[in-house]
Task: inverse folding
């Protein structure tokens, strides 16, 4: 992770992107994000911004539409959640136009202006699934956001960037992710668990496609202000990780052994994380 980050030479913009913003009642933050996407330093004819308003009951849809986003409204009381919203959005987007890749940004984020230029360069080099670097939009709001920021700054450099330098796979983080349309056509989306990003990462690894870390493509994520919000968010993540582990761990381990795929085997270790957390919690209580 101490390895110097070299400044890249950006390729000429050629790839077409569909940016998807899945949201549920995000009227307070959706406007600035759509504006951020419209200001991206990339030819306007090569990307479109979609807002998937998923079962919204506020003014999210109206605000997104007024800011220039392509609005996709979804109503489904049974199949709710980000994974289902993305599956709907991808299908609707590809009906309108053929894109080289999809980008997913959370509704409370902001995007650095050169994000698409960097992702275009990576796609043209042959990479298929990309995860940009997540920074913190509000590090100075509370002690909780400050701790979040420090944790993310350390993990970005000494976990994800280190894994990248060793040739291992990153994990999709739910926002700032870019997926080639070819991959979606090959294996589909189908990630509808509580941790749809991690589920799709593992699905792709089982099919021999790793996620590449892109250290200088940055999105700024808004973090929870209170510890109680963090607690429930983390609990939901761990529940989702258990689900993915039980569903995909045997297949991923089988691929690692059968194909001598050390990238898959390293991800098996990461997939065991919720079990480490459970064991550590129990030991702490003891």
Result:
């Amino acid at each position: 992770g101490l390895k110097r980050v070299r400044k890249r030479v950006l390729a000429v913009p050629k790839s077409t992107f569909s940016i998807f913003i899945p949201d549920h009642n995000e009227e307070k933050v959706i406007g600035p994000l759509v504006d951020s996407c419209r200001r991206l330093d990339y030819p306007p004819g090569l990307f479109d911004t979609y807002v998937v308003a998923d079962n919204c009951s506020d003014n999210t849809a109206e605000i997104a539409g007024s800011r220039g986003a392509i609005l996709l409204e979804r109503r489904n009381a049974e199949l709710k959640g980000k994974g289902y919203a993305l599956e709907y959005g991808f299908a609707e987007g590809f009906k309108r136009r053929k894109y080289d890749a999809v980008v997913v940004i959370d509704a409370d984020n902001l995007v650095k202006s050169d994000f698409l230029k960097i992702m275009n360069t990576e796609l043209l080099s042959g990479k298929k699934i990309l995860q940009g670097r997540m920074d913190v939009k509000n590090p100075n709001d509370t002690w909780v956001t400050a701790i979040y920021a420090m944790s993310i700054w350390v993990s970005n450099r000494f976990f994800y960037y280190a894994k990248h330098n060793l040739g291992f796979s990153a994990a999709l983080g739910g926002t700032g992710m870019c997926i080639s349309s070819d991959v979606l056509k090959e294996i589909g989306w189908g990630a509808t668990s509580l941790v749809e990003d991690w589920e799709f990462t593992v699905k792709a690894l089982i099919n021999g496609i790793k996620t590449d870390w892109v250290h200088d493509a940055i999105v700024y994520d808004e973090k929870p202000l209170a510890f109680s919000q963090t607690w429930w968010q983390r609990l939901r993540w761990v529940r989702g990780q258990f689900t993915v582990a039980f569903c995909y761990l045997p297949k991923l381990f089988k691929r690692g052994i059968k194909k001598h795929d050390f990238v898959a085997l390293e991800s098996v270790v990461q997939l065991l994380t919720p079990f480490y957390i459970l064991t550590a919690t129990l030991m702490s209580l003891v």
The first strand starts at residue 17 and ends at 23. DSSP finds ten helices and eight strands in the chain. The radius of gyration is 19 Å. The chain has a mean pLDDT of 93.
